[in-house]
Amino acid sequence: MGRIEYIQKQQKEHSRKVVGALPVHYPKEIFTALDVVPVEIWGPPGPKAGEGAGLLQTYICPIVRNALSFIRSGKADIVDGLLFPHTCDSMQGLATLVPDWLNYKKPVFRFQHPRGSHRPEALNYLRDEISLLVHSLEKAFGLSMNPARLNEALRLHKEAEGLIRLLFSRRLHFKGPDRELYSLIRQGEFLRVEDHIPLLKKAIAEIADRPVHKAIPVMITGYVPEPMAIFDSLNAAGAIVVADDYAGIGRRIPRPTDNRLDDEGGIDAVIRRYLSLPPCSTKTMNPEVRIPYLLSLIKESGAQGVVIHEVKFCEPELFEIASIRNAFEAVGVPVLFLETELEAELSSRTITMIEAFLEVLRKKTKEGAAS
Amino acid sequence: MIRRIRYESMRLVEGPLLLKLQSFLIKRQKKKPDKYPELGPPLKTEERLRKMISMHYLTGRYADGAVPVAWATSGAPVEVLRPLNYHVVYPENHAALCGARHMAMPLLELAESHGYSPDICGYARCDFGTAFGGRTPAGRVPRPDILVACTNICQTVFFWYRELAKHFKVPLVLIDTPFLYGEPLPHQLSYIEAQLRTLADIASDVARRPYDLESLIRSTILGMEGSLLWKQCLEVNKAKPAPWSAFDQFVHMAVIVALRGTEECNSYYRELLDELKDRAKRGIGGIANERHRLLWDNLPVWFKLRSLSGRLASHGFHLMASTYTNAWGETADLLNETDPWRGMAKAYSHIYLNRDLPNKLRVMSNLVKFYECDGVILHSDRSCKPYSLGQISLSEKVSQACGARTMLLEADHIDSRAWAEGPVDTRLQAFMESFK
């Protein structure tokens, strides 16, 4: 079932409200608990550059430009409201442009999560922002938060996240290509978690006892896995993604080591979950945590190279490229940097770069085996 | 101790002597024929400005190891640092200096050679280039003991200072100011206030000096007074002809950025205000023949200040107000010496760039009306996404609201590679002709 059909079904058959959620971090459990369906808008490739695109300069990131085009083209009219998390300057600007000047009449929600520290003031503020979001959703849609339902939502999301982690940890045992795995995970961008879990479980049931891939394992980091053709090219060149640090995928899955999640319920648990997320360029202040996290991720996954895949003009990400690249090169891990727009397909230049990178990895593997 | 002696010596003896020597040499220089005779006579206070800023950078060369050094964003609450005797470096101010002196490009390229993308903010790249040891007109910028970034001007500073913290391995204190969609909510102000108190604690630890609330109140009052004086200086431009241009303001704002919260800053603006009032009284304008008055939106194009100013002036266009310079005076009355923390939380969150588009339109329209501008140039600044996003709609709306003619000028505040002489010239020509 496609997104549109799914959304319509939720609205018509179940009388559920659907909110278009812009990237990247927001407390999804709150939506689940309120029975509101968030459908994520990652600047989808496709909508024609029309009136919307002309309202933003070409040096604004394509996620924001495409999202604006998408909203202006009427393709987002199906949702009952929009959510703008506090991600970057461009998203912040879009969160005033759309409701204030583009005649968007449906409810608009904003979630300004704290930047940086985990000091008490930041946590108090986060609690207030989450409460404000709950209150805004309740008021806009005539809903009421049930604490028991919130705890159930937390449990469901934790289960789904555990299943995704398992899929990555057993990646070489999962038969399908990367596109299939990512398509499955990305269904969580619009499916209710209750509908997503069975699909994830079905995939896990198909995991073989032994590895079925002989490809070179790589790790990928970036903002969003678009265009998905990147996986086709990686697989065709002989690589397979075993570790993920996309802002839209891996960085939204809390680290499993945090047992505190089990001890708490309610808003406190939502906060704890937020704190347990892997470091992200858009929200983590401590300069000491991201690089060690990425180095541990590659070590645990056994990946032999890193693909940094960024969307052009994405400032939060672009600032960190140099230090990520330096950190991996310092430990002898080859790095490929790819910068793409949100085009439907990859350019032939990018495909050639991927092929050349795999040559390097193959050579390095042979040298390693010989020594 | 040696560093301290060196620092004090530069501040009290060598610096003043060097500046005297510099003034002497400048006076002896043969005067070149004025390339832009259409510009008004230079402000007399320029000499004092040059000395103050030179002194700031000269003493800065010896500040690390002598006094605590902070690198701070231009919108950071410097009042908190002043009582702790910090030498405060403003990387944005330094980058603007590099841009105006045409020395920015090698620094940008140095940062890019270290892997930084040419698509990130030019100020940040200039700063990274400086940190990597590039040549700067300041001679040397002192190493920081602490980094203070406030997101009220952009989120970019958060990403930028995080990189600086990795490089210098010093504490980074972030003042995270929630973006204001409308007015601030109580929990947002409380959050900012708590972060300001945290800044005071960390800055006090780094400086190894106890925090003194009395001194904070004093520096708050000085900061408030300085901002109000700056605002008054700008408002003198209601006179016709306006006694100084926005290009002059871009240069003279260096003091409110770099020395805010000091008596030195306030004394300077008192002198400037007197001079501007005198010029207004005597009908001396920022340009020789003011026929049209223009408002500028966004950061200046630092490396084209004089040529752009001369180009417009030669056609009787006086760019005499800007949203950028206005931003340094517009929240002064929110500071409050009886409740300094809350006052700062309010003042530092109400910054122009931290507010929604309707507020931008309101401010811009008010400026157009107040200064009786008949045109607006909106600098679409490739380096500055938060200032530039929304300008296409803003241009149309301000035109509708005030009847002012508007144009969008594509450039960058510091990266000269984004400057296309031909297209800029054509657009400016067409814009100016539309007034005929």
Summarize the structure.
By secondary structure, chain A is an alpha/beta fold.
Keyphrases for this structure?
heterodimer; A: 371 residues; alpha/beta; Rossmann fold; 2 domains; four-stranded parallel beta sheet; 14 helices; 50% helix; B: 436 residues; 18 helices; 8 strands; 10% strand; globular
Mean pLDDT of chain A: 92
**Radius of gyration of chain A from the CA trace?**
20 Å
Average pLDDT value of chain B?
Answer: 94
N-C termini distance of chain A: 51 Å
Strand order of the largest sheet of chain B: 2-1-3-4
Q: Compute the CA-based radius of gyration of chain B.
A: 21 Å
Q: How many strand segments of chain B?
A: 8
How much of the sequence of chain B is in beta strands? 5-15%
Structural class of chain B: alpha/beta
Describe the structure.
The complex is a heterodimer of chains A (371) and B (436). Chain A has 14 helices and 8 strands. In chain A, α2 (28-34) packs across α6 and α6 packs parallel to α8 (193-205). The model of chain A has no long low-confidence stretch (mean pLDDT 92). Chain A is globular. Chain A folds into 2 domains: 3-146, Rossmann fold, CATH 3.40.50; 213-370, Rossmann fold (3-Layer(aba) Sandwich). Chain A is an alpha/beta fold and 371 residues long. With 436 residues, chain B is α/β, with parallel strands linked by helices. Chain B contains 18 helices and 8 strands. Chain B has helices at 2-28, 46-60, 91-100, 104-113, 122-131, 156-168, 186-207, 213-235, 246-252, 254-258, 263-282, 305-313, 323-326, 340-349, 357-370, 385-388, 391-402, 421-433, and strands at 69-72, 87-89, 146-150, 172-175, 292-297, 317-322, 375-381, 405-411. Chain B has a 4-stranded parallel beta sheet with strand order 2-1-3-4, with helices on both faces. In chain B, α3 packs across α5, α4 packs across α5 (122-131) and α8 (213-235) packs parallel to α11. The model of chain B has no long low-confidence stretch (mean pLDDT 94). Chains A and B meet through α4, α5 and α13 of A and α6, α7, α16 and α17 of B.
